[in-house]
Write a structure and sequence with these properties.
Elements: E1 8-12, H1 17-28, E2 32-37, E3 48-51, H2 57-71, E4 76-79, H3 94-119, E5 125-130, H4 143-163, E6 168-175, H5 181-188, H6 193-202, H7 212-223, E7 234-237
Parallel strand pairs: 1-2, 1-4, 2-3, 4-5, 5-6, 6-7
Helix pairs in contact: 1-7, 2-3, 3-4
Bound molecules: nicotinamide-adenine-dinucleotide.
Length: about 250
């Protein structure tokens, strides 16, 4: 079933992890897909690769213009590029707060701003933002990161309201702990990466991490005409982390 036949999609942060899995899934399902990334060197056909920094407005506008020209229009924006930050409010100085907000929040705003004129011309326009359970979960040692994802959640709702009458749907996914190169880097930094991975898996209700392909599946659903009546929602893809209360064994 090719849900995306004839549709054109742009995926930010599409060279790695969740973005890469999403770009590949949309292309498998029939979409023409462009990837926008800081380092798109690993991205090859059938994906179109564009280098851009979502923290730099001029670079976003140039890459979106090139991507839309290559795709022949735009129906789907997957606003996914993001970076992590650890610590409490006492740990990160102001410039770090500005830097991470600039990528995780304003980066999505910049990309959306550049894409909206093209999305208005589409008959199946959808935006999917990659948020996180950190937006609503109260995770320790994640003050800055969680604040950016709370902003992404609010941005999703506000954009959904602003553009619903233009036929543009806006939703977000809230992944839990996903087995991507990002999480791999965090584990590699631990004293005993294998033990740290085992402990992380044991904390998941599913007993394993979420896969990038599983998040891509949720993004694809929210991006596809199959979810045509869904806008302003957050879809959890967290292996039950937030919704389930398991009894301790
Ligand atoms: P990843 O590090 O594997 O991939 C992120 C991609 O974004 C990379 O290709 C990177 O080059 C690109 N990128 C980073 N900064 C950029 C910038 N300024 N401009 C353009 N591209 C940039 O990470 P991932 O785990 O796939 O995370 C993707 C998204 O998912 C992020 O928004 C992250 O907050 C979110 N998320 C991840 C997890 C997880 O457990 N991995 C959980 C919840 C949410």
């Amino acid at each position: 079933m090719n849900d995306f036949e004839g549709l054109r999609a742009l995926v930010t942060g599409g060279a790695s992890g969740i973005g890469r899995a999403t770009a590949e899934l949309l292309a498998e399902r029939g979409a023409a897909v462009a990837v926008l990334d800081l380092d798109p060197s690993s991205v090859g056909e059938p994906l179109l690769a564009h280098r851009a920094d979502v923290a730099d407005d001029a670079s976003v506008r140039a890459a979106v213009a090139a991507a839309v020209a290559g795709l022949g229009g735009l129906d789907v924006l997957v606003n996914n590029a993001g970076i992590g930050a650890r610590g409490t409010v006492e740990d990160n100085p102001d410039d770090e707060w500005h830097r991470v907000f600039d990528v995780n929040v304003v980066g999505m705003v910049r990309t959306a701003r550049a894409c909206l004129p093209h999305l208005r011309a589409s008959r199946h326009a959808a935006v999917v933002n990659t948020c996180s359970i950190a937006a609503t979960a109260g995770l320790p040692q994640r003050a800055l990161y969680s604040a950016t994802k709370g902003a992404v959640h609010a941005l999703t709702l506000a954009m959904a309201a602003d553009h619903v009458r233009e036929g543009i749907r806006v939703n977000c996914v809230n992944p839990g702990t996903v087995d991507t190169p990002w999480v791999g880097r965090l584990l590699d930094a631990a004293a005993d990466p294998a033990a740290e991975r085992a402990a992380l898996q044991a904390r998941q209700p599913l007993g394993r991490l979420v896969t990038a392909a599983e998040v891509a599946g949720a993004i694809a659903y929210l991006a596809s005409p199959l979810s045509g009546a869904t806008t302003g929602t957050a879809l959890a893809v967290d292996g039950g982390m937030q919704g389930l209360r398991l009894r301790p064994e």
